[in-house]
From TrEMBL:
Enzyme Commission identifier(s): 3.5.4.5
Keyword Metal-binding attributed: yes
Binding site for substrate: N44, V45, E46, N47, A48, S49, Y50
Superkingdom classification of source: Bacteria
Keywords: Hydrolase, Metal-binding, Zinc
Gene3D superfamilies: Cytidine Deaminase, domain 2
UniProt name for this protein: Cytidine deaminase
Keyword flag Zinc: yes
All residue ranges annotated as the CMP/dCMP-type deaminase domain in the record: 3-125
Amino acid sequence: MQINWEHLKEQATAAMKQAYAPYSKFPVGVAALVDDGRIVTGCNVENASYGLTLCAECGLVSSLINSGGGRLIAFTCVDISGNLLMPCGRCRQLLQEHGGSKLQLATDDGIKTLAELLPWAFGPEEMEKRLD
Ligand code: THU
């Protein structure tokens, strides 16, 4: 599938503008292309109990599932200045579940796969192998 990275970044930027980040003052927006062609987005949602903060990727995954599911194909994450951000470690694991090792990510060093960002990942395949 053709990936329009510019459009994905615009969608991530629009989502970033919806962020609720009064504590860090670090709004984050994410957007991803799904294998059926739709785009899902998310923004970070912080909490007075800091540790309960939801990263933007949490919102994206919730939106993915709530809008019909599917596999993530391409992902981008931006900050308030339009810089590309790398997903935090926990969010790499979220992306692993719904995009897998082949998920493509925009980075300052070009397009990378999730396998490069999260090598030797633990994912649904491991569970399948061990639960039958
Ligand atoms: N944040 C995200 O939304 N996603 C990431 O992958 C990195 C961090 C948010 C969480 C928090 O609201 C703010 O960025 C500062 O850490």
